Amino acid sequence: MKKYLAAATLLAITSAAIASPPGITGSGHDFSGGTYGSDQICIFCHTPHNAVNNNLLWNRSYAGPTTITWYTSATLTSAAKNNVLGAQSKTCLSCHDGNVAIDAFGGKSGSTMIAAQFNLGDGAGAGKADLTNDHPIGFSYANAYTQNSTGLKAAASFTASLPLYANNMECATCHDVHNKYGNSALLRKNNAASALCLACHNK
């Protein structure tokens, strides 16, 4: 019995050691190493001097898409659909809409595009994003809950770990860009057994 307990303990320690640690280093947002034009981590999004945009000391000139094709469904009512992206989601889409290169920072145009599987907007063309096949964002969760309280949980039950922004669902509701929690896909909550999905949905 002791032998099995020791083996289980060793396995647990080994698994913990190889798990993705929290923090941006080594995460999907760590582009350092020189392949994309710099050995720094933060410079791809932020700069301490001569920022392109003073908000967040932003180091990228593209502000995200201006023309968006939105997700629609029978359960996402017109009352809930604001169809206006919050600042958080615009920041995400300034890279993830498939229009701008990873190495387009600091005034450079760049040439290395983000891999297609990481595009939220499916590369719909310059200044455009097609969000029809992605989880809806930029909508009022409160209005959605009012229209579909049997399918959704009250916001108070999940906002401590999955924040809303001006009561809207945005990219940052589910994802943390700096990988604070060490989950796959930079998720705020581990989605084993669909735990992230079930934080909001009654299914």
Structural class: mainly alpha
Mean pLDDT over the full residue set? 86
* Count of runs of 4 or more consecutive helical residues: 5
In which range does the helix fraction lie? 10-25%
Distance between the termini: 40 Å
Shape type: globular
Record field, number of beta strands: 4
> How many individual domains?
1
The amount of beta strand, in percent, is: under 5%
Low-confidence stretches: 1-19
The topology string of helices and strands comes to HEHEEHEHH
Describe the protein in words.
The protein has one domain. The protein has 203 residues and is mainly α. The chain starts with a helix and ends in a 5-residue tail after the last helix. The chain is 21% helix and 5% strand. It has helices at 2-18, 87-96, 141-147, 171-174, 195-198; strands at 67-69, 128-130, 139-140, 168-169. The strands form 2 sheets. It has a two-stranded parallel sheet. The chain has a two-stranded antiparallel sheet with strand order 3-4. The chain contains 5 helices and 4 strands.
